[in-house]
Each structure stands twice: as structure tokens, then as C-alpha cells.
Amino acid sequence: MDPIRAALDAETGQVEPHGEAITRRLSDMKGYYLDSAAEARLVDEANPVLYEVFPLDVPEEEGHVLCGTTVIHPGKVGTEYFMTKGHFHENDRSAEVYHTLRGLGYLLIETGDGRAEHCEMKPGSVCYIPPGWAHRTVNVGQGPLVFFYAMPGDAGHDYGSIELRGGFREVVVEESGLPVVQPSGGRQ
Ligand code: PAN
Ligand code: ZN
């Protein structure tokens, strides 16, 4: 293949040119939020776009580096902030790097055997997600949360393990106007 030259707009998260973009609406995440009544109401009212992913057009093969941007829009479902589905990499030898370009958020990471940690995301933050750690991103700011990601071409995405476990061990909710990271309690 030929080299790729692309432009990344750190304000909007747009990457041009890009490969097939992903757009996830609330209806694509049924059962992911704590407050299922608030979730159902919001799906009926507006079914908002929660986040978009703009990847460079790179083959999903060993030896390549998959990279691009994710843009998470601001908002909440009940008291819980808009977030990504979250996943393990199918290939559990695959790490990933996130570099935050705009906004405020948290990266929740956890292992299959019970370790849970989180990283603050703000412009300039870099978090290295080691192999074997599931990851989910949460936007706690007023504007979009934009970050650049890079991972091995053959990483793959496993969403099923997170769904089976009933979500992540930590959730991020608003309390008295401020974001709080707390144990999800009883969801595992
Ligand atoms: C990111 C995520 C992106 C969307 O590019 O894919 O933030 O999150 P979900 O894939 O969990 O919906 C990444 O971690 N890729 O591996
Ligand atoms: Zn990933």
C-alpha cells in the first residue's frame, strides 16, 4: 500500500481522509446505563449520537497500526455521563495508546481478574492501556471529548465479555454537579 497523509482537526476530531467511520447512538447501547428508565426515555425523545470514531484507512492486519480519533459528545443518561461501549481486545496481546486532544473525561480500565483503575483525560494526557485490560471512555466535560488512539492491526474487539459481566467495575456519575468515579456495585 501507499503511505497515508491525513489531517486531524483536534477541535472537531475530524480526520481527512478517513476509512469507514463508526457512529453509535444510545439505541446501540441498550442496557449499558444504570438508569434504564432514563435510557428508554432518551431513546424515545432524541436517540442522540453518543460518539463517533474516525479511523485512518489501514488494513486490520498484523504489522499495521490502527489509529484515528474518537469523539464523545457531552451529555448524560440519568446521572451517568455519555461513554463508549468498552471492550477487551480479541487478541489479548494487544495494547493501545490514547492521547487526549480536547475535553475532559475518564478512561476506565480493568483486567479480567478484578483489577480496576482509571486515568484522567484532559488535553495532553497520554494513557497506555496494557494488553489484557478492557477499556471504556467517559466524557465528563461540557464539550466534546476528542482523543487519538493507536493499536496493533490485528487487535480485534471483544464486546461480549463486558456485556456478560454486566459492565465495568467502575462507573462515572454526576453528584452535586461534579463527576465522581465509583464502584458500579452489584453489576458484576
Ligand atoms: C477505540 C474505541 C472507541 C469506541 O478506538 O474503539 O473509542 O469505543 P468502543 O469500541 O468500545 O465502542 C479503541 O479502544 N479501539 O480499540
Ligand atoms: Zn481498544
Q: What would your notes on this structure say?
A:
- This protein has 188 residues and is mainly β.
- It contains 2 helices and 17 strands.
- It has helices at residues 36-45, 160-165, and strands spanning 7-8, 15-16, 22-25, 49-55, 65-72, 76-77, 80-81, 88-89, 96-102, 105-111, 116-121, 126-129, 133-139, 145-152, 157-158, 170-175, 178-183.
- The strands form 6 sheets. A 6-stranded antiparallel sheet has the order 3-4-5-14-9-12, with no helix packed on it.
- The longest helix has 10 residues, at 36-45.
- The radius of gyration is 16 Å and the shape is globular.
- The N and C termini lie far apart (44 Å).
- The model has no long low-confidence stretch (mean pLDDT 96).
- Bound molecules: 5-phospho-D-arabinohydroxamic acid and zinc ion.
Class from helix and strand fractions: mainly beta
Strand element count: 17
- Element-by-element helix/strand order: EEEHEEEEEEEEEEEEHEE
Shape: globular
Mind telling me the C-alpha Rg? 16 Å
Instruction: Record the strand order, biggest sheet.
Output: 3-4-5-14-9-12
Ligand roster: 5-phospho-D-arabinohydroxamic acid, zinc ion
**Multimer state:** single chain
Portion of residues in beta strands equals 35-45%
| Largest sheet, strands/sense/barrel | 6 strands, antiparallel
| Total helical elements | 2
Distance between the termini: 44 Å
| Helical residue percent band | under 10%
Average pLDDT, rounded to a whole number, is 96
Given as residue ranges, the uncertain stretches (5+ residues, pLDDT < 50) are none
